[in-house]
Amino acid sequence: DVQMTQSLSHVAASPGESVSISCKASKSISNFLAWYQQKPGEPYKLLIYSGSTLQSGTPARFSGSGSGTDFTLTIGSLEPEDFGLYYCQQFHEKPFTFGAGTRLELK
Amino acid sequence: EVQLVESGGGLVQPGRSLKLSCAASGFTFSNYYMSWVRQAPKKGLEWVATISTSGSRTYYPDSVKGRFIISRDNAKSRLYLQMNSLKSEDTATYYCARQGQIGYNDWFAYWGQGTLVTVSS
Questions:
Q1: Which of A91, A92, A93 to mutate to test binding with chain B, by most B CBs within 10 Å of its CB?
Q2: A34 phi-psi bin (left φ>0, alpha ψ -120 to 50, beta other)
Q3: pLDDT tens per residue across all 121 residues of chain B
């Protein structure tokens, strides 16, 4: 199975700052990577797919980069609604696997 | 607007069965692969099952293979998960999810709110 590692379980930042969340795959997954956001009481929301393509409705301050094994989700100029949990997921091969999540907290 | 509404969760004893249902609306259900994903309490996400558009192909991780069965009724726009021989480690919130592209088994573009399954005696 492809192991997905999000090295930071928590990141603290302030509104207006830029933050990056990393995700590493145990083997090359090309760009078959998605990023999701979870906020309390809301369904999981797809932010980015294929490594860097923004899902319709995802604000432009979100961007994704990387290919192969190393990926980054960057949020430029944080808004209050951006605080929550972020997960990466590979869909290169089955079983589809997720990272353990990174909680973006208010500093 | 895409909507996915799960139902059927609850408390069940180990070894028993439970069937989850997901009502889909806001898109042409028969065009998309559909999946179930779960999250155990204070744990990460785990993919549970995926079914092709026609239902002819199904995919499972080893953790549930042989115990869980995913199915769909395209006429009713409903997705199901039959869970047999339940174990305590199956305790989780189960999410119904729609894949991203028509006819492709790819990312999870839309998710439901989830239904909680608790396996305990």
A1: A91
A2: beta
A3: 999 999 999 999 999 999 999 999 999 999 999 999 999 999 999 999 999 999 999 999 999 999 999 999 999 999 999 999 999 999 999 999 999 998 888 999 999 999 999 999 9
Q: How far is B93 from chain A (nearest CA, A)?
A: 12
Query: Which of A96, A97, A98, A103 to probe by mutation at the B interface, max B CB count within 10 Å?
Result: A96
Cβ neighbours of A101 in B, within 8 Å: 44-45
Question: How many Cβ pairs within 8 Å bridge chains A and B?
Answer: 54
- Rounded Cα distance between A73 and A54, Å, is 11
Number of other residues whose CB lies within 10 A of the CB of residue A1: 13
**Which tens digits make up the pLDDT trace of A52-95?**
999 999 999 999 999 999 999 999 999 999 999 999 999 999 99
Report how far residue A44's alpha carbon sits from residue B37's, in angstroms, rounded to the nearest whole number: 11
